[in-house]
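Technical note accompanying the year-one report. For the benefit of new consortium partners, we illustrate the data format agreed upon in the data management plan: each record pairs a sequence with a structure-token string. No post-processing was applied to the example shown here.
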Amino acid sequence: MKNNFIALLGLGSTLLLGNCRQKSEDPAPALTGKRWMLEQVNGTPISVSSYSYDFASFIQFNAQDLSVSGLAACSTIKGGFALVADSQQLTFTQLTTTPGSCSDLNFATTYLAALPQTQRYEIQGNKLLLYDAAAATPRLVFQAAK
């Protein structure tokens, strides 16, 4: 009887510990956990202007659930992202936006159109560069927020 109890206790402990999830490893620590402020769209710099909300545009990557959130002028961005292990391939998935009430959305529209076309990324110092499949130059350039 005592041996059955010990065996049952061992089995229960194994099942209990087997169901515990270990925290997944961050797939790209240089990319995730930062707020990346939009700096350029298709080579055109975003200027800080009192007439535009473009300067507040950003993107942020969450490693825990592989989600992405951000702002395009005054429209919110939500979705997911996928990385290919040991590469710089990056794709966005299920991107949705909630429109804001900004009047001039020129940069925001181009920014939102470029995100789903992203195929790879580079990080150079405090800059995040996003490329589509055909471009030799980045479509979007971000700078890490201070």
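Partners are asked to follow this layout when depositing records. The beta strands are 35-41, 44-45, 58-62, 67-72, 75-83, 90-98, 118-124, 127-132, 140-144.
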